[in-house]
């Protein structure tokens, strides 16, 4: 992905951002998006958890393993705490499937995987005191591709980091596989370690679609042989995942592949909506997220009757599938279950409750300790005590904002009773000013039981989230980006630093002569003139910043020979 392609998408978002919505809200939103053009990491992320993950809502504080461990120890001791899901993760894949948003890293050598396995074991030992106190609701071994480990490595992981972990009776232990790397020996190792659920990432069955996905190696026979082995080995819940809405897919082709998969008799088939990364949108949807969502909804409308007919014929049910598929933005999966299959509550089905925590062991993914911290795991260090976790400490109002943003991101509503149970206060009282602005803009409504957010599209949710983060925080972040772009201009004996600053009034220019250099009123007048002229540049404030930088560099180049 080139920064330019990300920029195109953001520029489009700027043009189509909602018009004024409450005092100042839409302006900060538009300014932020337009300036995000300059910052490629931000340019592709808009969802509320992203705001935290990228340190937009709060600064990320690096915490060492011991700090994170004591937060978990406090949580494990606290009365009335919620359930904890454990996610054991491996970031590697053998091949990258085109457009996968979960992909993290291609494996460069067998040594790298061996190291990762050892580091994972070290980290598990480090967190041993916490793990001994907790009984996990579910254990999920995912990735990346967990089946990328050899059978011997898996046995070592199961005998090391996984041995001794307690999962509540009725909780699931899932081992995630991918057809290229899965084998009967690996399934045997997982089964012997007590894993009872296996999930195979099939994604697609149509040959042409698989080719476009870069998974031409995958054959129906591989999938059916995997499902047979899992059945023989006694897994009680055998799932296959499909991705809906991939390029080249039609509702008819998708439904035909779905029917072939059902005939292979998994216990469940989980259908996920394909979430396109920006490079995909740039190539096939003109960079436009909304256009993609519209076509996805129309695909789902056409495919549902075909799926329902195939499921009915082949003995599968999916209560609530229609309503789920017809959501404006589909998040999560719709699960078709074989009639008579006795399966436990599914990880994806058992939505995380507001007081529940999740612990990611490994590199890739987030962890959340309610009312204490949200953090991201960085690449694993050789010494487990030296791992660094990028953390947002959560307490007081920060924890409440975090809760609201998560609920907006996942459910588009906040349950008032649930909030009171967690924080002892009513969210309508805590966020009176923010909710009043959102209500005036028609974006949220506080009912007796719930605060409901009116729209589900990405931009509006982002705008709603910004109200809770606050314009001051956004402006401060934007100013950090701008200060990183400070121009150091040298010509003749003069030197200047030129810096743009953002405030509610827009951009302003700060000029300071270099240390020991004298002022040049002529140069300053020229710089101000250039700054004025940049106001006509297209692309919002981001476009203006770029135009100003370009013109300044050009002006200085023309003068660099002057004495
Ligand atoms: S779909 Fe699975 S195997 Fe393919 S790149 Fe993504 S995580 Fe890796």
What keywords describe this structure?
563 residues; alpha/beta; Arc Repressor Mutant, subunit A; pyruvate-formate lyase- activating enzyme; 9-stranded mixed sheet; 4-stranded antiparallel sheet; 23 strands; 46% helix; globular; disordered N terminus; binds iron/sulfur cluster
Description:
The protein has 563 residues and is α/β, with parallel strands linked by helices. 46% of the residues lie in helices and 20% in strands. The protein contains 23 helices and 23 strands. It has a nine-stranded mixed beta sheet. Strands 1-17-16-15 form a four-stranded antiparallel beta sheet, covered by helices on one side. Helix 2 (25-36) packs across helix 23, helix 8 packs parallel to helix 9 (184-192) and helix 12 runs parallel beside helix 14. The longest helix has 26 residues, at 289-314. The radius of gyration is 26 Å and the shape is globular. The structure holds iron/sulfur cluster. Iron/sulfur cluster (SF4) binds next to loops.
Secondary-structure map:
Layout: H1 3-16, H2 25-36, H3 40-43, H4 48-53, E1 61-64, H5 65-77, E2 84-90, E3 92-93, E4 105-106, H6 110-126, H7 128-133, E5 135-136, E6 138-143, H8 151-159, E7 166-167, E8 173-177, H9 184-192, E9 197-203, H10 207-213, H11 220-232, E10 237-244, H12 251-263, E11 268-273, H13 278-284, H14 289-314, E12 316-317, H15 321-325, E13 333-338, E14 357-361, E15 366-369, E16 373-377, E17 388-393, H16 396-411, E18 413-415, H17 416-423, H18 427-430, H19 432-440, E19 444-446, E20 450-453, H20 458-469, H21 471-484, E21 487-491, E22 494-503, E23 506-513, H22 521-534, H23 540-559
Parallel strand pairs: 2-6, 2-14, 3-4, 5-7, 6-8, 8-9, 9-10, 10-11
Antiparallel strand pairs: 1-17, 11-13, 12-13, 15-16, 16-17, 18-20, 19-20, 21-22, 22-23
Helix pairs in contact: 1-2, 1-13, 2-21, 2-23, 8-9, 12-14, 16-20, 22-23
The structure holds iron/sulfur cluster.
């Amino acid at each position: 992905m080139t920064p330019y392609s990300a920029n195109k998408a953001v520029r489009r978002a700027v043009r189509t951002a909602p018009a004024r919505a409450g005092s100042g809200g839409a302006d900060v939103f538009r300014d932020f998006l337009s300036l995000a053009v300059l910052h490629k990491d931000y340019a592709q992320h808009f969802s509320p958890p992203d705001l935290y993950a990228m340190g937009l809502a709060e600064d990320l504080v690096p915490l060492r393993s011991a700090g994170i461990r004591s937060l978990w120890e406090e949580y494990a001791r606290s009365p009335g705490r919620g359930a904890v899901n454990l996610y054991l993760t491996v970031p590697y894949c053998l091949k990258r499937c085109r457009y996968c948003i979960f992909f993290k890293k291609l494996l460069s050598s067998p040594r790298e995987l061996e190291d990762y396995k050892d580091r994972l074991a070290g980290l598990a030992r480090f967190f041993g005191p916490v793990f001994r106190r907790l009984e996990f609701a579910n254990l999920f071994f995912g990735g990346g591709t967990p089946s990328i480990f050899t059978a011997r490595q898996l046995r070592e992981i199961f005998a090391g980091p996984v041995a001794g972990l307690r999962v509540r009776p009725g909780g699931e232990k899932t081992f995630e596989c991918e057809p290229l790397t899965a084998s009967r020996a690996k399934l045997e190792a997982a089964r012997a370690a007590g894993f009872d659920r296996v999930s195979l990432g099939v994604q697609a069955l149509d040959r042409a679609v698989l080719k476009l996905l870069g998974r031409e190696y995958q054959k129906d026979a591989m999938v059916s042989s995997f499902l047979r082995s899992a059945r023989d080995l006694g897994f009680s819940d055998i799932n296959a995942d499909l991705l809906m809405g991939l390029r080249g897919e039609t509702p008819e082709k998708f439904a035909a592949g779905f029917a072939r998969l059902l005939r292979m008799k998994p216990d469940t088939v989980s259908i996920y909506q394909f979430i396109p990364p920006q490079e995909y949108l740039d190539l096939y949807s003109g960079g436009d997220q909304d256009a993609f969502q519209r076509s996805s909804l129309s695909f789902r409308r056409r495919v549902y009757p075909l799926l329902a007919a195939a499921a009915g014929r082949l003995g599968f049910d999916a209560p609530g599938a229609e309503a789920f598929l017809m959501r404006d933005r589909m998040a999560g999966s719709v699960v078709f279950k074989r009639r008579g299959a006795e399966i436990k509550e599914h990880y994806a089905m058992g939505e995380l409750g507001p007081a529940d925590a999740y612990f990611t062991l490994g590199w890739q993914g987030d962890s959340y300790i309610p009312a204490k911290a949200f953090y991201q795991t960085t690449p694993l260090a050789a010494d487990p005590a030296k791992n660094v976790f990028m953390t947002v400490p959560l307490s007081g109002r920060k924890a409440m904002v975090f809760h609201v943003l998560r609920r907006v991101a996942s459910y588009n509503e906040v349950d008032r009773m649930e909030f009171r149970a967690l924080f002892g206060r009513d969210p309508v009282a805590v966020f009176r000013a923010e909710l009043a602005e959102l209500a005036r803009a028609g974006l949220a409504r506080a009912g007796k039981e719930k605060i409901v957010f009116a729209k589900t599209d990405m931009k509006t949710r982002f705008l709603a989230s910004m109200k809770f983060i606050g314009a001051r925080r956004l402006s401060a972040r934007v100013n950090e980006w701008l200060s990183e772009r400070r121009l150091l201009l040298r010509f003749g004996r003069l030197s200047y630093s030129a810096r743009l600053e953002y405030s509610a009034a827009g951009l302003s220019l700060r000029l300071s002569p270099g240390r020991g250099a004298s002022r040049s009123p002529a140069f300053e007048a020229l710089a101000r003139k250039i700054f004025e002229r940049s106001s006509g540049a297209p692309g919002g404030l981001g476009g203006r910043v770029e135009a100003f930088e370009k013109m300044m560099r050009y002006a200085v180049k023309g003068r660099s020979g002057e004495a």
